[in-house]
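Duplicate of #3305? Posting structure anyway:
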């Protein structure tokens, strides 16, 4: 209450009547005190799952019963099944599991995580008969395409128990294979090299020697152009994708654009439980990886991910600059890496993190880790190792366009009163912008997420070119943030969920990128072309 009092007080300074101001402030504070926790309850099933991880079954039931507005019937039935198993009511759990599948839950959810909790159900004769009648594949999640370059690609899988997975590329000799095991969480990644640049490849999957078939998905991808090659292609990006089943269609809409890469910019699954990532983390990833809409995107698009506060820690977390403290940092990063198909990330064992870079022709994407080393006392979001890496990467880059992807926006004033975006680290932000100017680094475009809306903003730089920032921060979330009108606002939208695309044409006489924003029905909302000449220093 006291914190909210002092946070809201500056909003009332211009009121002439002090008593009227105090009364208004009191009511605003009371409203914030009671409403804020309600707004935070955006994921009843996950919250109930967290209670189960603490063996608080009654609290889990209470969470489900009081979540009518924001509860998915299928997911609610899945959590109810887990509650019954915790109470050793296995027969009732089976009935609830059948209800969950009838409501639309993929059956494979009962073959995945949490495997230990589901073991009594899976050992039932009736469950095994049910499983045999449905004949589900032992391939639970994937393929997720990733780590694509001009010559290579990788395929991520999760299976029900130990399996041999093979990938065969059409026109490419032989099959590459891996074997999943309990030690690696039944997750495996198949790597393929010797491919041709900028070429479409169909592929086939074999599970324990038998071909895996799924007519609902396209098993094919296109390699990246050679570094320096002019090309035309699309990159999709966004963040803030809370689990809301009726909004999951967005993944299919994105897939229909045939993006060469999809950049997930944080708050990708909303775990909010760093102390118990083994349970809640695996649960949150499992429900997203099981969605058929998600599978259609990941089977054909190179996926690249960084985390933000809700995937790494808790809301607006500032964990400090130490590598091993808090102690949950490394386990969270391990869990994150296990569930994505990223290229090499961070600075190795000594300086772990999720930052990464990759190149598509004349476009270089640089994705930042804005959480692991965040430290207010040291006035740094990136930490010295990552910041030096960023500067070296920018200096070495010969790309026409350099995309700096941050989980939180750079633009000033986008979250008034908050130090969570780059406004909380203005010294380091200025250091980065000044470095771009001092080193004459051209072609920089900023993208970000975190704000539950879509924005295009421009930061004016008297000593350099203006920096555009495109924010795509509401892929599947219910929770909406207002569009904040700042001096740099070009356009903003928050009426529905949506996604953003970057269409590059570096074959043109004047290389350009076209920014596009779409709503959650696939309707174009906004478009703007930026020529490479606009991102250059004036003579």
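Output from current build:
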């Amino acid at each position: 209450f006291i914190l909210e009092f002092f946070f809201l007080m500056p909003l009332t300074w211009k009121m002439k009547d002090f008593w009227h101001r105090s009364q208004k402030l009191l009511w605003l504070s009371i409203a914030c005190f009671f409403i804020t926790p309600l707004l935070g309850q955006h994921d009843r099933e996950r919250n109930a799952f967290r209670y189960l991880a603490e063996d608080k079954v009654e609290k889990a039931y209470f969470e489900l019963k009081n979540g009518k507005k924001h509860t998915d019937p299928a997911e609610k039935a899945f959590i109810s099944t887990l509650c019954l198993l915790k109470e050793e009511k296995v027969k009732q759990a089976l009935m609830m599991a059948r209800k969950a599948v009838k409501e639309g839950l993929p059956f494979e959810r009962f073959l995945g995580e949490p495997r230990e909790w589901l073991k009594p159900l899976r050992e039932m004769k009736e469950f095994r008969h049910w499983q045999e009648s449905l004949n589900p594949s032992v391939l639970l999640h994937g393929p997720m395409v990733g780590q694509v370059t001009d010559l290579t690609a990788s395929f991520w899988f999760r299976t029900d128990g130990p399996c041999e997975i093979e990938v065969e590329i059409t026109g490419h000799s032989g099959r590459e294979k891996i074997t999943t095991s309990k030690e690696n969480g039944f997750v495996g990644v198949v790597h393929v090299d010797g491919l041709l640049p900028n070429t479409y490849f169909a592929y086939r999957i074999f599970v324990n020697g038998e071909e895996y078939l799924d007519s609902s998905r396209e098993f094919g991808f296109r390699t990246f152009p050679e570094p320096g090659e002019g090309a035309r292609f699309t990159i999709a990006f966004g963040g803030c994708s809370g689990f809301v089943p009726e909004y999951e269609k967005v993944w299919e809409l994105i897939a229909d654009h045939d993006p060469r890469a999809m950049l997930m910019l944080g708050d990708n699954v909303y775990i909010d439980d760093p102390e118990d990532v083994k349970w809640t983390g695996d649960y949150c990833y499992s429900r997203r990886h099981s969605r058929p809409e998600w599978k259609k995107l990941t089977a054909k698009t190179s996926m690249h991910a960084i985390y933000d506060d809700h995937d790494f820690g808790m809301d607006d977390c500032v964990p400090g600059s130490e590598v091993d403290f808090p102690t949950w940092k490394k386990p969270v990063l391990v869990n994150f890496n296990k569930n994505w198909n990223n290229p090499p990330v961070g600075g190795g064992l000594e300086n772990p993190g999720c930052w990464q870079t990759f190149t598509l022709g004349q476009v270089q994407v640089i994705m930042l880790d804005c959480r692991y080393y965040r430290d207010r006392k040291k006035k740094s979001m990136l930490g010295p190792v990552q910041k030096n890496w960023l500067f070296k990467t920018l200096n070495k880059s010969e790309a026409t366009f350099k995309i700096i992807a941050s989980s939180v926006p750079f633009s000033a004033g986008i979250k008034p009163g908050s130090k969570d975006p780059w406004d909380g680290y203005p010294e380091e932000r200025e250091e980065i912008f000044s470095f771009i100017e001092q080193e004459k680094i051209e072609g920089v475009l900023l993208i970000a997420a975190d704000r539950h809306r879509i924005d295009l903003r421009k930061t004016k730089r008297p000593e350099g070119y203006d920096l555009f920032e495109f924010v795509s921060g509401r892929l599947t979330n219910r929770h909406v943030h207002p569009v904040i009108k700042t001096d740099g606002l070009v356009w903003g939208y928050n009426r529905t969920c949506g996604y953003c695309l970057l269409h590059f044409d570096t074959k043109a006489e004047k290389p350009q990128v076209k920014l596009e924003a779409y709503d959650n029905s696939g309707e174009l909302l906004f478009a703007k072309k930026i020529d490479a000449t606009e991102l250059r220093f004036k003579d």
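Confirmed duplicate; merging threads. The longest strand covers residues 139-146. Residues 1-41 have pLDDT under 50 and may be disordered.
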